[in-house]
Amino acid sequence: MRNLLQTIWRIIAAPFRLIYWIVKSTIRWVGNTLGEIRGLFAEEPEDAPFPETLAKAIKNPMDIIEHLDALRKHLFRAMLFLVLSTALAFAFIRELLDWLSRPIGGIDSLQAIEVTEPLGVVMRVSLLAGFSMALPYITFELWLFAAPGLKRRARLMGLVAIPVAFLFFIAGMAFAYYAMMPTALPFLINFMDIPTAIRPSSYIRFVTGLMFWIGASFEFPLVIFALASMGLVKAQTLAAQWRIAVVVIAIAAAAITPTIDPVNMGLVMGPMIVLYFVSIGLARLAQGRRGDARS
Asked: Which pTM was predicted?
């Protein structure tokens, strides 16, 4: 009887023990991570030439194995977080599909013609939504791996750039959803007054692809700022080549734009041109800070 009561108690207490273990592990991980970050900003790596660093790595191959092992741990944590975020997105997949299909009248406007088509759509949206949510943490894990070899200033800039890059990415996705799609979709669906049966696979592929690439294009100023901070790009060069940049942006906008009309192409070109000139300002700011650091 006593063993039976103990077994029943273990079964009843199992969820609470699991929650306690998760909370305890999370608190311990946060504490270890914060301690690791404080340690990174408290030390400065040795400024050794690349040939000398390469020679040391060849002489002591165990150092390379240690770095690979550290990379494995960072990638494992990033993949674990990606799995959790994808599972969270899957739990709210109905709401996500309703939101994505709102510009065409809701999910009832989609018509599947293949048996596995809805399943493929659900998996695609879950993975992309999970990746979007996990992107800051994945970048943070990569920063933790690369930070020991960076200067303190570069470490700080990289840490600050993670949330800024995520905000730029979200802003680009929001621009594609709220500014481009309301004008592009009616043109595509009603072109030549031909009735269109909207398939879930083609529509979701179109929407998610457009949002992803526009979000990625909004990262351009941050990339330019990072390159200028390393001395690889100069603001004067970007300003002098602005005409060529406009032509390149027009070609990129034509490739990204889902329609062939100039209105939607202009909607893409406008913010990209603005982002280019913002990049020039950020590059000039990075050059000034780089010059101050040298002096």
From this structure: 0.73
